[in-house]
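Appendix C reproduces, verbatim, an entry submitted by the partner laboratory led by Prof. M.T., so that reviewers can inspect both the input and the predicted structure.
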Amino acid sequence: MSTVPWTIERIREALASPSLARRFDAELDRAPADELLEVFTKWQRIAGGLRAQAVTEI
């Protein structure tokens, strides 16, 4: 498991889909300041799941 911290850039890369990356960006852009961490965490889980799925498919 990677110990590199999640960043917005890493989440975008892990999503591996331009449409998902746009949706991620849009949700971050529209989130009120007090909800940014919640949105980030949601997409971190999604990206982590996609990354884990990609690793198991190898």
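DSSP finds three helices and no strands in the chain. Additional entries are available on request from the coordinating office.
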